Amino acid sequence: MVLFCLILGTAGAFVGYRVFKSLFEEQYESITRQIAYTALSYIDADRLAGWAGGDAADESWNESNGKLNTLTSTAELAYIYVTVPDADFTKRTYIFDTVNPKVESTVIPFGHVSSLEKYDGEYIDRIKQVMLEGKPCIRFVYNGDEGHVTTSVPVIDSGGKVVGILGIVKPMSEIRSFKTRYLRTTLATAGIITLVLGGIYILVLLFVLIRPLVTITKETSQFASHQGILSGALQRIGGNNELSTLARSVETMAVDMRDYIDRLTKTTAEKERISAELDVAKQIQANMLPRIFPPCEDPPEIELFASMIPAKEVGGDFYDFYMVDDDHFALLVGDVSGKGVPAAMFMVIAKTLLKNLGRHGNSPAEVFRRVNNQLCEGNDAGLFVTCWMGVLSLSTGELVFANAGHPLPIAVRGGRVSFVKEKPDLVLAAIRDTEYTDYKVTLNQGDRLFVYSDGVTESTDKENRLFGEERLVGLFSNDMEGTPQEDLERVKNVLDVFAKDVPQFDDVTMLEMLVKERRK
To answer: Which one, 29, 131, 322, 414, has least CB within 10 Å?
Structure first.
């Protein structure tokens, strides 16, 4: 409490001093600015350039100098000076320098040229501000218990040109006495307040806080050591304050604790049941995706491998491949928006519809058109699917494909790595009656096709940087000549190294097909 009062008193003194100092400086600024403009009225600005250029002091100069001397004395200034800096601001010529003998004894003579190179950049900038911009400059200087204010204003001739600088320096003699009175008053007040509040605080602690707290502490120990059974001492704490509320809360807690333990036991059992069901759902989803490579119907003309790693217990990504007829092989990769169980359920529907329509020999674009209309029916959850689907002719190597908002696949053809750059159409389950486009590309012996979900390129590291398409293309440009399974394992290892300890955010699905030969 004492420390708090001291800090509060010190903070109040500091803030008060800063406020008063600001008002103090505003007053001095106003006074010195008025004096500066009064001094300007005593000077013939049109003669200033001539005096700086070598003209001798004349009657006009003597008259102005006398008025400035009088103003310096009556206004209790330290001195008034008028100077003309050169164009490079390396030196200045003194035209007037009136000094208050109570403050300063040295007077700089008329026409004296003084170097500016010994001053710092801030000082030169203030001179430039007055000469080049025609703006007054105010500067406060504090030296311990003393200080002064310097006000510099532009001297403007009848043609509106700034021809020199008039500066006045006024001591701030009230600073020392003000600071002493202020500190004494503040410290004395803070000390008295500290003593009074400290005494009251001790009494409050003893009779209002400490005794009830001791009782509550003993009862909570009783509560912990006797399985929620209290001795009844809390009932003696009356009143309508925080401690009485705490006492009632402890009593209520003792009653609620047993109910909570019962509910916790039931909740734990329910969570274990849900976890077991999710494990079953994960296994069911995994069983829906082809897992035998090569499959029993895999033609010898191609080699293929695929994998799907969900971010949660179940995911929304999927892949599929199958023979449409004796000469056509279909493959696809899809990604349902969202995560978890809703995405997994939507994935099952989408995958089933795509395969059912694909087996009837429809082109990828026609399959997407029909599946899109069916998915739009009753899609109240607003889910959608990105999907890439291709049908390869084993005899000609022609690949007919369509893209419903899916990342562009990577093709390795003739040793060159590139994206299969065709403009994707709209995602599935977004808008009914959307039309999709079939594109064609020819794959020759030794060519590869890599199809993936955005979980690959959007993997992030601890600095939240994306793995990106450039790194993925770089992998295939750097001797990716193994089997499709080896290529996918290499990509997964690189992703793991890139992400390190960052948890997987999205499902990661990859499929690679290698064309080994053409069917004869």
So the answer is: 414
- Cβ atoms 428, 371 nearer than 8 A: yes
- Token reading at 30: 């106003």
Task: Return the H-helix or E-strand segment holding 296.
Answer: none
Return d(Cα 395, Cα 442) in angstroms, integer. Answer: 11
Which residue in the block uniquely carries the two structure tokens 């109910």? 259
Rounded CA gap, 254 and 228, in Å?
A: 5
Q: Are 174 and 21 in contact (CB under 8 A)?
A: no
Contacts by 228-237, CB closer than 8 A, 24 or more apart: 228/254, 228/257, 228/258, 229/254, 230/254, 237/212
Average pLDDT over residues 370-382: 90
> 168-181, pLDDT tens digit by residue?
998 876 666 666 77
Edge-to-edge order in the sheet of strand 91-99? 113-115, 91-99, 79-85, 162-171, 146-156, 137-143
For the chain, how far is it from start to end, CA to CA, in angstroms? 95
Which letter does DSSP use for residue 428 in this model?
Answer: B
Shortest CA distance to 167 belongs to which of 124, 204, 198, 130?
130
Asked whether the beta carbons of 77 and 170 are under 8 A apart, the reply is yes
